[in-house]
């Protein structure tokens, strides 16, 4: 004599929750009680409705998995699975936890491989792109030093443009850089790293003075002219100092430096009270 099968075996596994569907899987009943299983009836109970609306889906055959479709986004469901043979329907296998139907969170797109341009002896400008219609993105910029074998974040605030200047670098080190995008759903995979960034060694001659300053004696209210000549490459920046304090150009002092390797300091209307600052 054939009777209803035992209920399907658990657990009732919920997976692949989408904006309007969910995938269920379970195990077959331990007993079919004399009649082969014809299929399974899946009950989806919408617990947000006052009348507790139920939807039924028939899955014919021996398969112990089913995708339930046409569910309402943002609604909460509870699922139950029944086994059926020719004698009738089993008791239901209940999923005790509630399931909210919602769209999968979509992480932001991965940025393109950045370009890196050295703009000073301690800074680099990075530029990258993201796919069109990528909105409300923040970017995370990281640098890599081969000697340390460690990626370190460069920015500590929001970066919403597709370029960034990395500062406080060392020109005697080699770096790589990469960028990740970030939104409310998380952080993207990092971009491909830049090509290695390394400062080129500067070729030239250290600066040296070839004509030194000479003492200058002038009468009160006359001007005093000091000059020196120097050499060195690349172009040299010259500072004049008195008592280790830098002399700045002003009403009483004029500084002229040219590319030929000569610099002059003129002090105007010298007297005992003249202050050189």
TrEMBL record:
Gene it is expressed from: Ttn
Domain (Ig-like): residue spans on this chain: 207-277
Database matches in SMART domains: FN3 (SM00060)
Stretches of the chain forming a coiled coil according to its record: none
CDD domains: FN3 (cd00063)
UniProt keyword list: Immunoglobulin domain
Keyword Transport: no
Residue span, Fibronectin type-III domain: 8-104, 110-202
The name this protein goes by in its record: Titin
InterPro entries reported for this sequence: FN3_dom (IPR003961), FN3_sf (IPR036116), Ig-like_dom (IPR007110), Ig-like_dom_sf (IPR036179), Ig-like_fold (IPR013783), Ig_I-set (IPR013098)
GO terms for biological process, alphabetical: anatomical structure morphogenesis; cell differentiation
A Pfam family annotated for this UniProt entry: fn3
Gene3D superfamilies per record: Immunoglobulins (2.60.40.10)
Superkingdom, natural source: Eukaryota
């Amino acid at each position: 004599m054939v009777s209803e099968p035992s209920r399907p075996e658990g657990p009732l596994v919920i997976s692949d929750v989408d904006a309007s569907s969910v995938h269920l899987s379970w195990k077959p009943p331990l007993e079919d009680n004399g009649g082969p299983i014809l299929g399974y009836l899946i009950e989806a109970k919408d617990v947000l409705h006052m009348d507790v609306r139920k939807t039924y889906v028939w899955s014919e055959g021996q398969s112990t998995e089913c995708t339930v479709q046409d569910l309402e986004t943002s609604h909460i469901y509870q699922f139950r699975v029944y086994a059926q043979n020719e004698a009738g329907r089993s008791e239901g296998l209940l999923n005790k936890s509630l399931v909210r139907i919602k769209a999968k969170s979509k992480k932001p797109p991965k940025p393109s491989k950045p370009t890196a341009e050295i703009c000073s002896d301690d800074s680099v400008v990075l530029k990258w792109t993201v796919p069109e219609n990528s909105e409300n993105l923040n970017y995370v910029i990281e640098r890599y030093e081969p000697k340390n074998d460690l990626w370190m974040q460069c920015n500590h605030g929001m970066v919403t443009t597709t370029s960034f200047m990395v500062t406080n670098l060392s020109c005697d080190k080699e770096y790589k850089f990469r960028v990740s995008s970030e939104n409310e759903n998380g952080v993207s995979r990092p971009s491909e790293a830049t090509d290695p960034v390394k400062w080129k060694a500067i070729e030239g001659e250290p600066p040296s003075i070839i004509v030194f300053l000479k003492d200058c004696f002038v009468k009160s209210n006359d001007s005093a002219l000091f000059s020196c000549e120097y050499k060195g490459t690349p172009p040299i920046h010259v500072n004049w100092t008195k008592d280790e304090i830098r002399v700045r150009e002003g009403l009483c002092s004029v500084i002229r430096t040219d590319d030929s390797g000569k610099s002059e300091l003129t002090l105007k209307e010298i007297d005992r009270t003249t202050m050189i600052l």
